[in-house]
Amino acid sequence: MMNTKSLEQANWLFKQECQFLRGVENAGDMPLFDLPEVGFIGRSNVGKSTLINGLTNRHRLARTSNTPGRTQHLNFFSLNNQLILVDMPGYGYAQAPKQLVVNWTQLICHYLENRMALRRVYLLIDSRHGLKPNDRGMMSLLDELAASYQVVLTKADKIPLKQAAAVHEQTQEQIKAYTAAYPEVIMTSSEDKRGMEQLRLAVSQFAV
After folding, report:
1. What's the domain count of the chain?
2. pLDDT, tens digit, for every residue of 15-70?
3. Range of the domain at 75
4. Which H or E run includes 165?
5. CATH number for the domain that contains residue 174
């Protein structure tokens, strides 16, 4: 059961000002903000930007697109000067130019390996498809880097409730094989707001 007071605080936090700070495409340009950070990562077109907009009760904070690969930078947002949200480039988009994919991969790896302020990564998985091989590859990388992460299933409104429950149960079982994975999977929908309060509560614990 959720702690009501903590949930109220979490919902309050995500109603406060959330400001875009900077987009970074080169590891050498990585800024320091002296605040804890949480990152959002997933396969291209998994709904990262839409989820961030939903979490913060905004429509256009993070740029969304139906075109995979739209997020090409590490985008940093300050939530009430208490927490930094990081929208990361998607992975698994084979149609992007090869060098661009290499650059994204290097940028992501540098951030995950060297960012002392990073408290947790939220790994977004499309509920319609479950874990794909490149998701497992990312999980193995996060394990290798000892980067704490939590799996978040997105787009739950796109499938029937029974199927959603099955995907949630299956994913919950699959993550047991990964050492750095937080043991609880959160299922969400930016459309019907399913799981959004639960995710806000999880993220808000890292705010100062």
Report:
1. 1
2. 999 999 999 988 889 999 999 999 999 998 898 989 999 999 887 676 544 444 44
3. 4-204
4. helix 161-174
5. 3.40.50.300
